[in-house]
Write a structure and sequence with these properties.
This protein has 330 residues and is α/β, with parallel strands linked by helices. It is built from ten helices and 17 strands.
C-alpha cells in the first residue's frame, strides 16, 4: 500500500477529531490546554536537536510499519547512501530503552527485550476492535504490537519527550490515518475522562506512584463498564498481604515507593473497583531481558543487582520480580 509520510511533528489533529466524534470534546480541550507546556522547548534542551533529526529523516514513498515479529520494523526502499546516514540520526535519540526496532534493515537492539513481555501478555488479552489506553507507554513499542493484534485505536501517555520523539520517528513512516498516538502527558491528564476505553494498560508504573490506590482508581475510571485492565508491576514473592517500602533506593531507583505481594495487590484491585482479577504471569527480570547495548550504553540491570547474588538488588533488597494481572472494571 502506498504510504504518505507525516509532514508535521506532534500533529494530534487526527486524534482530537476522533475523540470529538466520540463526544469527548471537553477532554480534548483539557488535553489541548496541557500540551503547550509539555512541548515547551524551554523544558527540554534537547528538543531542538531531536526535531532537527526528525526533519532530516529520509522520504520513502513505499514505507510501511510491520509489527508481526519481535522487532517492530520500518520497511521500504532507500538508496545505499541514505541508509549509511540513517544510524547517525537514530543514535541522536539515545538511549533506546524499549523495543526492539528495525529501521530499513538497521536493527536497534534496545535495553529491554520488550518482545518477551509482549509474549507473556498477548495470549491473555483480546485487542481486536478495542480502543486501548497505555499509561506510561514509553516509545510506543507495545502500541504497534497492539495495532497489529487488531486494536481499533491506541493512545499512549508518557511524559518523557525522548520516548515521544522515538515514537514520532516511526510514526513519520506510517499512514497518516494510523490510529496510534502518544501524548507527552501523565495519568494526571485522566481524572476528568469519561469511561471510554475497552482496554487500559499500566505496565511498570504502579511502583513509581506515591499513591497506588489513586493510580488504580484513575485507571478504572478510564474504562467502560466491563473493560479490561492490564496491570504489570513489581511484586514481592512472599505470601500474605505485605508491602515493601524501600528506605531510600531500589535497584538504584529513587522513585520506587510500594512493592506489594500478589495477595496485597489483589486486595488493592478489589478496593479500587476491579473484579475477576487473574494472575497470568510472574517472572523474575533477568539480564537477558534488560541489559546495556550499543543503543543504550548507560548502566542497566546487571549494575543494579548484587554481583554475587542476582536474586538481590545492590541495596540487598529482593530482586525485581514482575507480576502480570488481568482484571475487569466492576
Amino acid at each position: 500500500m502506498h504510504r504518505v509520510m507525516t509532514s508535521t511533528l506532534f500533529d494530534f489533529t487526527p486524534l482530537f477529531q476522533h475523540l470529538e466524534q466520540q463526544k469527548l470534546t471537553a477532554w480534548c480541550q483539557q488535553l489541548r490546554d496541557q500540551l503547550p507546556a509539555a512541548l515547551d522547548p524551554a523544558n527540554n534542551g534537547h528538543l531542538a536537536l531531536w526535531k532537527s533529526a526528525w526533519e532530516r529523516l529520509p522520504h520513502c514513498a513505499d514505507a510501511r510499519i510491520l509489527a508481526d515479529t519481535d522487532a517492530v520494523s520500518v520497511t521500504g526502499t532507500l538508496s545505499e547512501e541514505t541508509l549509511k546516514s540513517l544510524p547517525e540520526l537514530l543514535k541522536i535519540l539515545h538511549p533506546w530503552r524499549k523495543g526492539p526496532f528495525n529501521f530499513f534493515g538497521i536493527p536497534i537492539d534496545t535495553e529491554w527485550r520488550s518482545c518477551l513481555k509482549w509474549d507473556r501478555l498477548a495470549p491473555h488479552v483480546c485487542f481486536q476492535g478495542r480502543k486501548v489506553l497505555d499509561v506510561g507507554c514509553g516509545n510506543g513499542y507495545y502500541g504497534w504490537r497492539m495495532l497489529n493484534a487488531g486494536a481499533s485505536m491506541v493512545l499512549g501517555l508518557d511524559p518523557f519527550l525522548l520516548y515521544v520523539m522515538q515514537f514520532e520517528f516511526l510514526r513519520k513512516f506510517a499512514a497518516p490515518d494510523t490510529p496510534h498516538f502518544i501524548l507527552p502527558l501523565t495519568d494526571a491528564a485522566l481524572p476528568d475522562l469519561p469511561a471510554f476505553f475497552d482496554v487500559t494498560l499500566s505496565m511498570g508504573v504502579l511502583y513509581h506512584r506515591t499513591s497506588p490506590i489513586d493510580h488504580l482508581q484513575t485507571l478504572r475510571q478510564t474504562l467502560a463498564p466491563g473493560g479490561t485492565l492490564v496491570l504489570e508491576t513489581l511484586v514481592l514473592e512472599d505470601h500474605g498481604k505485605q508491602v515493601l517500602v524501600p528506605e531510600d533506593r531500589y535497584a538504584k531507583m529513587r522513585n520506587v515507593w510500594f512493592i506489594p505481594t500478589v495477595d496485597m495487590l489483589m486486595l488493592w484491585l478489589r478496593r479500587a473497583g476491579f473484579t475477576n482479577a487473574s494472575l497470568v504471569d510472574v517472572s523474575r527480570t533477568t539480564i537477558t531481558e534488560q541489559r546495556s547495548t550499543e543503543w543504550m550504553t548507560f548502566e542497566s540491570l546487571a549494575d543494579f543487582l548484587d554481583p554475587t547474588d542476582h536474586s538481590r538488588t545492590i541495596e540487598n533488597l529482593p530482586g525485581p520480580v514482575r507480576a502480570l494481572i488481568i482484571a475487569k472494571r466492576r
